Amino acid sequence: MTVTTTDLFATHEELLNSALRAITERGYWSAYPESPSPKVYGETAAADGKAAFTALLGKEFPLDQPADEWVAPEQSPFGIPLGVRYPRTSPDALIAAARAALPSWRDAGPRMRAGVCLEILARLHKRVFELANAVHATTGQAFVMAFQAGGPHALDRALEAVAYGYAEQTRQVGSVVWTKKADTLAKTYHLVPRGIGLVIGCNTFPTWNSWPGLFASLITGNPVLVKPHPGAVLPLAITVQVAREVLAEAGLDPNTVQLAVDSREAPIAKDLALRPEVRLIDFTGSTAFGDWLEDNARQAQVYTEKAGVNTVVIDSTADFAGMCRNLGFSLTLYSGQMCTTPQNLLIPAGGIETEAGHKSFDEVVDGIAGAVRAITADPAKAVEFTGAIVNGDVVDRIEAARKMGDVVLDSAELAHPAYAGAVVRTPMIVKVTDGYGSECFGPVTFAVPTESTADSIGIFRETVGEKGAITAAVYSTDESVLDAVEQAAMEVGVHLSANLTGGIFVNQSAAFSDFHASGANPAANAALTDGAFVASRFRIVQSRRPA
């Protein structure tokens, strides 16, 4: 089948216009239903997606890229035998093919590129259950979370990037006849992409964290190399497969998007990141490697999301049970393996005021611990929230945290009813007085007794200012406290949530309304998604001549 890029833009123009309105209005809007219900996606969608996923296991992944060798680097946190083999292409070949693809993709222009990008998203949406199974198997996320975060929510973030990119490129005319007295010039404004983009994926959220950068670079005219984490290749391999199919059908070079697979034993991320042809890098992962990219990949515009010290300031509450339930769920979701999960609970040593009277420090911590116990009491139900531990480093951090202070709630092993090989751990809460100033990624929370709420705010300002954070929260019935924490959050550049007690949680964000990360503190130098995330991926080069 062959389609034209004009047809693709017309097909998806209404969706694009809706997304363009959404990024300015900031109200609730989603283009892709988040419920995996058969009533939404059809009676056979789940079974068909599972079958498509299963058909990929133990085989060579069907991707039309040259292969120097075939590698199978993934190991499922659930113990699912994956065995998918991927073509490993040399960096030199990847770079050469991307350079050759750049002129045609650049010359396609914003409308054509938008049509192609939106068609890719549409086809990914059709394969959402297949993707959900791939995310579930490679990351350890429970299936519903893998479906939502790895499918509809990731698609929304990608669409958001396309909308911002299209808006930034079309905010002015492409040419003009300019007259000043006796002189008349014809001026043309060329949209020039930066160059080759490199997306370095993470193990925990391979689509949610990678698609925004991928589509931000594509919509602005840059070919992209997609380098998955060796532990979560399949979701991004499917992404690249779909992108190449759409590009080829539209008469464009499929090498505009390529898969760059490596292994833990033979990584290629540093090699690619230092290539002079690579001019854009999107990375989600450790602070150490993010800092290395920022310091060393000087030829590229580097967008990083790294580690942070997410903090909750607890001053008082009018709904103690609701606060405990909300925080307990936030700590339990995906075993704390989210960049947005709270880590430090700053609580006055003298306790807090609640609608049920004064609660001591220990009562506050016990209340939150009790909420976690309630969620994780039944292993069969608990694993649908905790998922599995993504790698052994997380288990090591749990063991190390156990020695840092008084363990209020210990992390326990759970047996997964469906996957005998799964490593499942419940959240841990440790009372500490020091050592909480750096990130401890995983199901570890530090309860910190402070001298007062004012002291808590000072600690919040100091730790987030030094180490960064993706999220922050405050609980208080005092407007002056809420204002003080909000002021501190602005100063250290972290998004703040106040008094969440219902069904919205601090570690969740909504595309088209919430910004993910701010780019204003050490945890991330960019936000998903705003104008700044896309505007520097292209430049305007002007030419003028007498009219």
TrEMBL record:
Residues 92-493 form the Aldehyde dehydrogenase domain. GO terms for cellular component: cytoplasmic side of plasma membrane. Keywords: NAD, Oxidoreductase. Pfam families: Aldedh. One of its GO terms (biological process) is L-proline catabolic process to L-glutamate. NCBIfam families: PaaN_2 (TIGR02288). It comes from Catellatospora citrea. This is Dehydrogenase. InterPro entries: Ald_DH/histidinol_DH, Ald_DH_C, Ald_DH_N, Aldehyde_DH_dom, PaaN_2, Proline_metab_enzyme. One of its GO terms (molecular function) is L-glutamate gamma-semialdehyde dehydrogenase activity. Signal peptide: none annotated. The keyword NAD applies. It comes from the Bacteria.
